[in-house]
Amino acid sequence: MKALIPAAGHGTRFAPWTKLIPKEMLPVGARPAIALIVDEAIEAGADEVVIITSPEKPLLKKWFELNPPKAPIVWVDQLEQHGLGHAVLQAAEHFESESEPVLILLGDALVSGGNASSAMMEISKANGGASVIGCEEVPRERVSRYGIMKSASEISEAFFKLADIVEKPSIEEAPSNLAVAGRYLLDPAVFRYLKDQTAGVGGEIQLTDAIRRMLSEKTVFGYIYPGHRHDIGNPNGYLKALEAMNENG
Ligand code: UTP
User: Is the beta carbon of 13 within 6 A of some atom in ligand 1?
Assistant: First the structure.
């Protein structure tokens, strides 16, 4: 299985710090956040990790040159930041002929208290290699920050078949409080949808919109994985991540 880590965003929510240090390079103990995310992918079975970055962020590459991980890293540049879907699309040639789902880990999302990707891999394998999106329940007043899922049928308390998914809905329009939580295992068909995906919320090419269109062709599950997601893309989320990683690794 191959993994993909989009890490080319501008990081404006953590400015001005991110004008000097990419958020993915923020220290978590002795190593930068991105090293922990690469470890998570490799532990979950990734034999190659593709990282999407940009020429403004040379530190990421430098880190892994000095500190090689257990699997090869392939670097792909996103030269203009048109959103997560656009970032993922830049790596299409590395994934579209794959027969297995692609593991996508957001470069600014850390998970404490377990390996979310491993748990998602297991549940995907147990369901014929289907796509699985990691999710968490969020307070209703925060749904407009996330991709929000609608469940078609609940299989267990933490596992359900997706009926719909919508990026950053208003509180009134949100189909649930189940939010995408930084980890995806997606059928490579998603690249076909990304290729002609038009801009969505915020004028960005949204991965959520491509997944939504893929639902007409592929079964996708939502899964509340064990552990907690921390968004290190803002100062408060970063501090909370440090506390949590300190407590339970
Ligand atoms: P975010 O929206 O959290 O990242 O995207 P951002 O754009 O850096 O954040 P702000 O809003 O400016 O603070 C989630 C992930 O997708 C990557 C980011 O690096 C992050 O890991 N991303 C986002 C890209 O690689 N390219 C993009 O164009 C946008």
Answer: yes
